[in-house]
Amino acid sequence: MAATDGGVNGGVPPHWHHTSFDLEIPSDVRHIESIVDLVQRVCRELAFPARQCSLNVPVALSEALSNAILRGNQRDPSKPVRVRFNSDGDRLVVEIVDQGAGFDLQRSTRDPTRPENLTREDGRGLFLMKSLMDRIERYNQGGNVVRMVMNRHA
Amino acid sequence: MAATDGGVNGGVPPHWHHTSFDLEIPSDVRHIESIVDLVQRVCRELAFPARQCSLNVPVALSEALSNAILRGNQRDPSKPVRVRFNSDGDRLVVEIVDQGAGFDLQRSTRDPTRPENLTREDGRGLFLMKSLMDRIERYNQGGNVVRMVMNRHA
Amino acid sequence: MSFTITKQDEVVVVEVEGQLIVGNRQELKQKVLDELERGGRKFLIDFDQTGYIDSSGLGVLVSLSKKIREQGGELRLANLNDDLKTLFELTKLDTLFQIADTKERALESF
Amino acid sequence: MSFTITKQDEVVVVEVEGQLIVGNRQELKQKVLDELERGGRKFLIDFDQTGYIDSSGLGVLVSLSKKIREQGGELRLANLNDDLKTLFELTKLDTLFQIADTKERALESF
Ligand SMILES: Nc1ncnc2c1ncn2[C@@H]1O[C@H](COP(=O)(O)OP(=O)(O)O)[C@@H](O)[C@H]1O
Ligand SMILES: Nc1ncnc2c1ncn2[C@@H]1O[C@H](COP(=O)(O)OP(=O)(O)O)[C@@H](O)[C@H]1O
């Protein structure tokens, strides 16, 4: 394109409509940051509130990814972690699939705010995912799937 | 995850496996840069050669996007442009769908290197797409689809 | 992602630039433990340049705070942005740590 | 994406930071035409900080070069990286423009 002027209309451009993606990474924690960064950017392009893109999405997603890599796939780089993302702009759904046998979501979630847990080093991941997302589910389907749903906040 | 050490294995992490995405933007040229940036990053994560990610992909993709926004959708922000991306790491396929009637790919491609065209301001877009990608196709399917295929260079 | 360690009077100041997550928290832990070994007893972690922290990053802070206290030392945190404050409140870790608004206040408080 | 204009002796030096593409090339065009209007006749566009250029960006360079020549002026380009060189070669625009390796060489050549 050269002849036509593609000049700016002024103001912020209308945001992206729907977005989905599906990708697969080897089990290596060094991929967490780039995946989180990708999803954060899409979150912003879809015009979700700033706080949801800077806090809820990155923390919940990095927990789910590190559990998939370290717990599900036990850091075996030959085992892939799959990330499926879908959003129509109203809610955002992320599914993380690992090659592990799965786990009992209810029983594995501790309350880290109880006095006896407060000084523990571990056990805050699932709690944070539940606190920061509107829904967390787990099921087996070609692997262990953790599904997180976040609605657009007002 | 807290108890287990997620420490670094040393070296560069094994690259991403397959990646696909599907997104829709309103017809506004200000989205071109962020889409190109997204695809460039995925190109790098899939470990395509540096030059393909810094030259071939961004230039061909920005041409296709601006043609879709300005020619196909005539910059009507209510008309979406859809971007479909898919790569298994060996080749990379991008499809850009606009809401226009389509065009004759062969007849619309000029040779801008001919003396009579060299000082023209326009007419280099399709030529660059063909030069920088391994295959360009066009067909109608729910809109005007321009399909670009790039193989991994040695 | 990087950690910068400087000393202001007797205080070991650690700046966390970028994320504090599973991929790098071990590095933070080691750096602080090295300083503790070398005799440092007053520690300030400054989050002014920090993005997000995951549960393993929080875990490392809890563990460091214990180890420092065992040696008779103290750990203070400073410059949590709103997101990080929320994270500490959600996990009630705001009750476990001494958190100052600014680096200066944290330094004065030792 | 931004364009920085400075003057070195009689030469108007334009630095292109980031992409030169359909969304911002109009801004570059206007800035250079303004300087031409104000009497500038020697122009150097420096691509040291440039990412990629699309066909509309190339088109603006062609059009500016014509307009500058019409006023008896000259346009030189400098600091094309390997990607940009390839782009100019593919389109044979390397035959249309005077391209210097460095800003210094370009300045000397006027
Ligand atoms: N993807 C997973 N595969 C298998 N087990 C998991 C997975 N995610 C979580 N778990 C189990 O749930 C427990 C609690 O997880 P979490 O709350 O993140 O705390 P932590 O990982 O620090 O123990 C883990 O210790 C593990 O047993
Ligand atoms: N998505 C599209 N929809 C309709 N027409 C198109 C599209 N893409 C390209 N064309 C046609 O092909 C022509 C050549 O395109 P291109 O080589 O990019 O040069 P330019 O856009 O500068 O004219 C355009 O002028 C237009 O007529």
Could you walk me through the main structural features you see in this protein, from its secondary elements to its overall organization?
Chain A contains five helices and five strands; from the N terminus they run E-H-H-E-E-H-H-H-E-E. In chain A, helix 1 runs antiparallel to helix 2 and helix 2 runs antiparallel to helix 5 (125-132). A five-stranded antiparallel sheet of chain A has the order 1-2-3-5-4, covered by helices on one side. Helices cover 34% and strands 25% of the residues of chain A. Chain C is an alpha/beta fold and 110 residues long. In chain C, 40% of the residues lie in helices and 31% in strands. Chain C is built from four helices and six strands. In chain C, strand 1 (2-8) and strand 2 (11-20) form a beta hairpin. In chain C, helix 1 (25-37) runs parallel beside helix 2 (55-70). Chains in contact: A-B, A-C, A-D, B-C, B-D. Chain A binds chain B through residues 1-4, 6, 8-9, 13-26, 28-31, 34, 38, 41-42, 45, 63, 66-67, 69-71, 75, 77, 80, 120-125, and chain B through 1-4, 6, 8-9, 13-26, 28-31, 34, 38, 41-42, 45, 63, 66-67, 69-71, 75, 77, 80, 120-125. Strand 1 of chain A pairs antiparallel with strand 1 of chain B. The structure holds adenosine-5'-diphosphate (2 copies). One adenosine-5'-diphosphate sits between chains A (63, 67-68, 71-72, 98, 100, 103, 108, 122-123, 125-127, 144) and B (1-3). One adenosine-5'-diphosphate (ADP) sits between chains B (63, 67-68, 71-72, 98, 100, 103, 108, 122-123, 125-127, 144) and A (1-3).
